[in-house]
Amino acid sequence: MKGLFLHLLCGLIFMLFQTTIFPHLLLPEMRPNLLLILVIYLGLSESFLRAAFLTLLLGVLQDVFSGSTLGLYATVQLTIFLLVRLFSDHLNIESRPLLLGLVGVGTILQSLLLGFLLTTFAEAGSVLGILLADLPFQVIFNLLAGWGLLVFLLKLQPLLGTRQGMAGLSHQSKHHGA
Amino acid sequence: MRDFLKRHQIPLLITVLILVALLVYSANLRKKTTTTIFERAVMTLTEPLQQGIHRLGSGITGIWNNYLSLVDTRQQNIEVMRFNRELRAQLVAVNEIKLENRRLKKLLDFVEDDPRRVLPALVVAEDASSWARTIVIDKGVSQGVHEGLPVVVAEGVVGRVIKAAANSSRVLLVTDASSSVAGLVQRTRTRGVARGNGLQLKLEYALRSDPVERDDLVVTSGMGGVFPKGLVVGWVASVHRDAFGLFQQIDLTPAVDFSRLEEVLVLLEPEP
Fold first, then answer.
1. What 3-state DSSP class applies to B250?
2. Counted domains in chain A
3. A168 within domain boundaries
4. Using one digit for the tens of pLDDT, what is the confidence trace for B235-267?
5. Quick one: chain A helix, strand, coil %, rounded to 5?
6. Cross-chain residue pair A19–B50, CB shorter than 8 Å
7. Confidence of residue B100 (pLDDT cuts 50, 70, 90)
C-alpha cells in the first residue's frame, strides 16, 4: 500500500513539474513526458496487478491535466504498459541503455496511439501533424529525462536500501509477480 | 471455462482494463465541456500546489527579468518614451471621437449590446502534453466561472473554459487542434471557421471568390454562440487559391502571444 501511494505521489509531482515548471523553461514540444517514463518503469519492476492499477490511475491523472477528454491517456498508458509487460520477460532490464531504448520506443508508440485514437474517435483536426512534428524532440527530451531520472534513482539507492525489482539499478533482480 | 480464464487471466484482465478506459474515453468525447467529479477533485486538490509553484516561478523569473537581465533596457526606454509621445498625440484625437460617439449614441438612444462582466484571472499552469494547448487559470465555480465561457486578453481571443473546479478552471486555447471559432475577415466580411493547428490558425470555409489579402484582420463573427462579435482572432498570414474549388486556404497569425500569457479576462454571463 505504501508503495502504491509512493508511486501515485511520484506521478502527481511529475504532473506538477510538467504543468508548472517545464512551461517556464521549455517550449511545448521539448517538455518531456515524465509519466510515460514512470509507466515503463512500473511495467518492468512492479507486480502485475499493482502496476496495471497504478498505470490506469496515472493515465487518468494525466487526462485531468492534458487535452480535453478523460480516458485518452488512460487507454494509451495501459496499452504501453501491456506491451512493455509482454516483452519484459525477454529483456535484460538491468541494462540501462536498453531501458532508455524502451523510453524512446515508448515515446514513438505513445504518439502513434494518441494520433490513432484522436483521429479515429474524435474530430481532432491537424493533431496528427502536430504529434509527428513534435516526435523527434519528444524522443530526445524523454531520453534525456529518462537518463536524468535513472541517475537520480541510482544516487537515491543507498537511502532506499536494496529492493527487489527496481529496473535498471545495479545488483537488482527482476521480480514479476502475477 | 474456468481453466481457460485461470490460464489467461492476465491478458484478459488487461484487455478488460483497456476496453474500460476506451469506453470512458468514448463516453467523454460527447461531453468534452463537462467536468467530472474526479476531474473536479484532482483540480481542487492540485490548485493550491500549482498556484504556489507558479508564484515561486514568477518570483524567480521576476528577479531575473527585473534586476539581472537588463541588457538593452536603456535603448528600449528611449523607444518607449518616443512611442508614448506619439500615442499621447493620437489620444487627443481619439478622445474627440469618443465624445462625439457618446453624443451620437445618446441621440440614437443606443443600448450597449454586450453588457458582460469581466473577471481577471492568472494563468497558473499549462497543458501536461506537448500537442494539446490548454491553460489553467486561478478562477473557478466559486467566482462564477463555468464551462463554455470565453476567455480574452486586450489583444484578442484566448479560448474558452472547458473544465471548471471550485477555484481553478482549464481553458482550451484557440490554437488547439480541436478548437474552432466562427470568424469574419473585417475588410471583406468573408465568413469562415478559424481552426487551431498548434501554433497558428487556419481560416476554413472562406469563399474562394472573396478578395482576402495578407494582413487582413480576422474577428469573431459571434455565430458560434461562445464568443461575442468583434473580438480580434488574428491577421491573415498567407492566402492560397487553387485553380478550382469552392474555398481558399487562409493561414492566420494569432493576435495573442500564447507563449507570454500571464493574465487573462473571463467574460462572465451578463447580469440579468
1. strand
2. 1
3. no
4. 999 988 887 888 888 999 999 988 888 889 999
5. 75, 0, 25
6. yes
7. confident
Contacts of A43 in chain B (CB under 8 A): none
Phi, psi of B128 (to 5 degrees): -80, -10
Q: Is there a contact between A19 and B128 if contact means CB atoms under 8 Å apart?
A: yes
Q: Which of A8, A82, A154, A69 is nearest to B17 (CA)?
A: A82
Chain B partners of A24 at a C-beta cutoff of 8 Å? 57, 61
Residue-by-residue DSSP string for B145-185 = --TT-EEEETTEEEEEEEEE-SS-EEEEETTSTT-EEEEEE
Chain B residues within an 8 Å CB radius of A67? 127, 129, 132, 134
- Cβ distance B224 to B242 under 8 Å? no
| In-domain check, residue A171 | no
The amino acid that residue B35 corresponds to is T
Instruction: Say how far apart CA B127 and CA A23 lie, in whole Å.
Output: 9
Q: Nearest C-alpha of chain A: how many angstroms from B193? A: 12
Chain A touched by B28 (CB under 8 Å):
yes
d(CA A47, CA B231): 54
Enter the ipTM: 0.83
Whether residue A40 lies inside any domain: the answer is yes
Per the CB < 8 Å rule, is A20 touching B125?
Answer: yes
Taking the CA of residue B93 and the nearest CA in chain A, the distance in Å comes to: 41
Which domain range does residue A45 map to?
2-160
pTM: 0.81
Cα distances (angstroms) measured from residue B262 to each of A20, B20, B125, B126, B256: 12, 38, 10, 11, 11
Q: Residue A178 falls within a domain, yes or no?
A: no
CATH code, domain with A74: 1.10.1760
Give how far the C-alpha of residue A123 lies from the chain's centroid of Cα atoms, to the nearest Å: 26
By the CB < 8 Å criterion, does B16 face chain A?
no
